[in-house]
Amino acid sequence: MAFLADEIKRATPDEVLAKSLKRIKPSATIAVTDKARALKAAGRNVIGLGAGEPDFDTPDNIKQAAVRAILAGKASKYTAVDGLAELKSAVARKFKRENGLDYKPSQIIVGTGGKQVLYNALVATLNPGDEVIIPAPYWVSYPEMVLLAGGEPVAVDTRMEDGFKMRPEALERAITPKTKWIIFNSPSNPTGAAYRRAELKAVTDVLARHPHVWVMADDMYEHLVYDDFVFFSPAQLEPRLYERTLTVNGVSKAYCMTGWRIGYGGGPEPLIKAMAMIQSQSTSNPAAVSQWAALEALEGPQDFIAKHNAIFKERRDLCVSMLNQARGIQCPKPEGAFYVYPSCAGTIGRIAPTGKKLATDEDFVTELLEAEGVAVVQGTPFGIGPAFRISYATKTEDLEEACSRIQRFCGNLK
Ligand SMILES: Cc1ncc(COP(=O)(O)O)c(C=O)c1O
User: What is the pLDDT of residue 11?
Assistant: First the structure.
């Protein structure tokens, strides 16, 4: 049927955007990194403690494997959508070796970062009204990904006095007939909270009693643990959950490969197939060169992980000790990841050097950046405040300087 183009109302840039976008927020962690970058570009001495990535470079053996793959022409073409057969086999071996989990290669998907694997799973499973339980504080992307996929995030608050670990009765109360998933992340971004065996068992005991609830285990920080902490993945500790668990991991954090964008997941075959279908119609395979590099990461020498962890542990101890000496700040000592999540409740109501009264944690981080050039992320977008997140994956001297600036800022509040 013919129509006159003039009769059709032109969409404004705002109208052209999908309604679903109105439900989500941009990442607060990326926003603070951008703000710090802009101040730096303007000549300010800024220390950024916002970015969630190791400051160490990718180990040489991994880089060399990537170069060899390029030169051998192995990186030029599409690979299988769900990952190279060689890499999927290596992932299966990793799950068996490190987590005692049996996954066949057909139960494994490789994606463009763990983020894509999590997102694929949510898109593949959520119907409108489906609920996804997310312990708070949570990684900022979880609720937004759930909303984008059409589901409803349900936060379960944890408390600082419990080390930000979920009480089993709080989980029990949050489960409804509409609950489809729980996203479980230990060690956690943003708090570093890591569940010890008995604490995890208390959670998996609840989940074992609710067979309609599926478990998205985000093990991204598995290798970044300190003191005598021993890591367990949920389906490893509670085999009854195996049939309804997606175990997600990746090379970004432990192998210093955030830029390479490789993550992976293991789970029931029909779920993995559905996730691969979504990937096939959206991004196709993750970059071939990155997959060859990830293969070397998983199968090559692992000794640098312990070396990095010794440095991370020192930095964690430095941060915790110095922040607890800042007026109005209370900082628990977590056992994993590279984050601390101090409360700034004791600074709320005080007056910053600009004359601004601190009413929220966003005010705290904005005034801290302004007064002292230290960039941290406010806690509210992570679900619990007033608090802020510090990533200590940054040079030790910078970290020490940043913590003394925080002490000075807090000490100067009126
Ligand atoms: C808890 C958690 N899960 C998953 C990811 C995703 O990592 P990537 O997409 O780089 O593999 C991140 C990255 O910040 C994270 O903090």
Answer: 76
